[in-house]
TrEMBL record:
Protein's UniProt name: Branched-chain amino acid ABC transporter substrate-binding protein
CDD domains with a match to the protein in the record: PBP1_SBP-like (cd06329)
Pfam families on file: Peripla_BP_6
Organism in which the protein naturally occurs: Alkalilimnicola ehrlichii
Organism taxonomic ancestry: Bacteria, Pseudomonadati, Pseudomonadota, Gammaproteobacteria, Chromatiales
Keywords: Signal
SUPFAM superfamilies xrefs: Periplasmic binding protein-like I (SSF53822)
Amino acid sequence: MSKAIRRAGILAGAIAAGLSLAFTATAAKADNIRIAYIEPLSGPFANVGDAGLRHFRFAAERINAEGGILGRQVEIVPMDNQQSAQESQALLQRAIDRGIPFVTQGNGSDVAGALVAGIDRHNRRNPNNRVLFLNYAAVDPALTNERCSFWHFRFDAQSDIKLEALTNYMQERDDIKKVFLINQDYSHGHAVAATAKRMLAEKRPDIEIVGETLHPIGQVRDFSPYINRIRRSGADSVITGNWGNDLALMVRAAEDAGLDVNFYTYYGGGLGVPAALGKAGAGRLLQITEWHSNVPFEEDLTENREWMKAFDERNPEINWYYQRIYNQMYMLKAAIEEAGTTEAKAVANALAGMSFESPTGTVYMRADDHQLIQPMYISVMDADVEYDVENSGVGFRTIAKIPAEETVVPTSCEMRRP
């Protein structure tokens, strides 16, 4: 055999071996259980999208280290929607075209609504290629009421649940006389404002709403005009559903102006807010959440603390914040294992009505509307706690725990089931 022929044979063998390895790697990756993460990874809310991505990837790594799901690895596929509902719909189609069976999103109820509509439409037309939407943070009540969907599951407490708890607490505070409402100008912000007014009128009709404003989402760089308006109103308390930079910039402007009010928030525990306020926020900023880093050891939270510390060592600038992502990922794991498949309808049927032992107690996915029912905590910013957040010198201290059964609110959902 000539040297040229022998070299050609060796080269052909090497190419064949390389193609075989590449095919094996591609097949292995295609066998992963993939979750499309559709969130802003650029623009004014990029920090929020990045924080969520780190949480999901950490949870996936832990599940994979435990053997994965049905012996398959979990893969998070990031997709940048630039906080656009229209772009999110395009990314949804891209995820479907790639054969990804699960979609997760949370930042922006307008985006969530667009995804619900798109998935409903796709699943009706394509019964052999259906997709499931796992919502970890979009809290507009409509998504589990008049716009509820069999293909949508919410793992965060919806807005009415959070406001029910906050206004119950405020009801007992004699020092609250005047409240100002400031929220982002989209469906979530509108829902917070309307529900806060209704609940305060029912529980404390003596409290005066001295001002209300809605501002463009993700567009305000200088909140000082809004802070001046709050000061002129004479408010002693502010209720806001703001999140991301819209909340961090607002509280920073309040601190710079020396505004002496208490902030009642949904999202004051992370994503730049503690770093913006520091010790100046102690005793003045409150939040309603499903978890915080100083949740008391009423239950055995040793494993949860280990999880938190491992994440925080890797991500000291953001810390573990979305405990509901833990719940979502492990409930999805349990549902897939119960169904024995990743097929959307089978997994949805396994998730609906599921009870799950979370680190803070039993949670369950209400079958009527696919809303997770879970214990909630009201906490206040405090400098004298074991764990601070964002290297700010402050963390959060629990002032009220609301058992899961006390967070239940009625639903008007009339779910169409396939």
